[in-house]
Design goal:
Layout (H helix, E strand, L loop, with lengths): L5 H31 L5 H14 L8 H7 L9 H20 L6 H19 L10 H33 L4 H41 L12 H15 L3 H10 L5 H20 L6 H16 L6 H32 L1
Helix pairs in contact: 1-2, 1-4, 1-7, 1-8, 1-9, 1-11, 2-7, 2-8, 3-7, 4-5, 4-12, 5-12, 6-10, 6-11, 7-8, 7-10, 10-11
Length: about 350
């Protein structure tokens, strides 16, 4: 019988807690436009999003994104302490950005914290920090800090123009009614993609911890309770909302109508579907922000509040390095105490 260590239990609980925080931190991604257009009340919006967050459990079974996250740090530099330090760093940055209403990426803070603690461990044990991480996985993730919002923006522009062309002869009142119905569908699709993408990241961390403690032999042997608990945690977190970030996403970037809400959410869902298919841990936050910018640009360039967008860009750029530093410092403190 395999002995389960106390630290492993703590790491699993902390990972699920991060998934819950990820849910309420990123709730704005799924509900900001549907709330700002008054299609749903805030409570109904988070309930709607949570249902489809969890529904993704039954569809996303390949776990490609989880596998990518699990390979962020090279196996010889992975210990429970490294994983613990990475999670503490990720939770700290997530709570900080949530408190100040900054829509940063939960995905990137998790990757940054894990990579930073792994690099610190390599340094402490006489290794080369740069060889402690899977550089191709990190490069893929970093590249999509730029590519995900651009892809979301381009798809949003295309969808907006298609919808406008289809609906140009419709009476405004009739069109508005149909857009509100369609926004329920697009919001559900975005929440579905969000759940499928983001829940997998914590699955990868938990699987890595189980492998490190030799509870399971490899990623493919991940027990069924891991994805189930991760999807449940992110859905529960979404139910808790993230109202400060909702305000930023739903009103500060550009004014969003039901038509534009449909286009932005559909574009976000399509983009996340593409990245999930290729196992890329893209940021839901970055993706939907780019999509919202896209629908604003169709109206006119000045419809987008570029000052707000530039502030968000700085948060995106800083998330991985700041989380990495926090992960390294947390590991150093753990070693000093122990």
């Amino acid at each position: 019988m395999i002995e389960i260590s106390t630290l492993l239990i703590v790491v699993v609980i902390l990972a699920i807690a991060f998934d819950y925080i990820n849910g309420f931190h990123d709730a704005a991604n799924s509900i900001a436009t549907v709330v700002s257009t008054k299609v749903l009340t805030p409570f109904m919006a988070v309930l709607w999003a949570a249902i489809f967050n969890f529904a993704a459990y039954f569809y996303f079974t390949d776990h490609k994104v989880a596998n990518t996250i699990a390979k962020t740090v090279i196996e010889e530099y992975i210990t429970l302490e490294v994983i613990f330090a990475g999670l503490v760093a990720a939770i700290s940055w997530n709570l900080f950005t949530w408190y100040y209403g900054i829509p940063s990426s939960s995905s990137h803070t998790l990757i940054g914290g894990f990579a930073g603690s792994g690099m610190a461990y390599a340094l402490m044990t006489g290794g080369n920090p740069l060889t402690a991480v899977n550089q191709s996985a990190i490069l893929k993730t970093v590249s999509f800090i730029v590519l995900a919002p651009i892809l979301g923006m381009i798809i949003a522009v295309i969808i907006t123009l298609i919808i406008m062309n289809i609906a140009k002869k419709s009476r405004p009142a009739v069109a508005e009614k149909w857009f509100k119905i369609c926004q329920l569908i697009s919001s559900a699709a975005l929440s579905f993609a969000h759940g499928g993408n983001d829940a997998q990241k914590v699955m990868g961390i938990i699987a890595t911890a189980l492998i490190a403690e030799q509870v399971i032999p490899n990623f493919e042997a991940m027990p069924a309770w891991v994805p189930l608990s991760c999807y449940a945690a992110i859905a529960a977190g979404t139910m808790s909302g993230g109202w400060k970030i909702v305000k930023t996403m739903g009103t500060k970037i550009t004014k969003v109508t039901p038509l534009e809400g449909v286009a932005a959410e559909a574009a976000g869902a399509v983009t996340l579907g593409i990245t999930e298919h290729f196992g890329i841990p893209a940021s839901t936050t970055h993706t939907i922000t780019g999509s919202i910018i896209g629908v604003g640009v169709v109206k006119r360039i000045s419809a987008v509040r570029w000052g707000v967008t530039i502030s968000l860009l700085w948060a995106w750029i800083l998330t991985i390095p700041v989380s990495a530093v926090l992960g390294g410092l947390t590991l150093a403190i753990i070693h000093y105490i122990m």
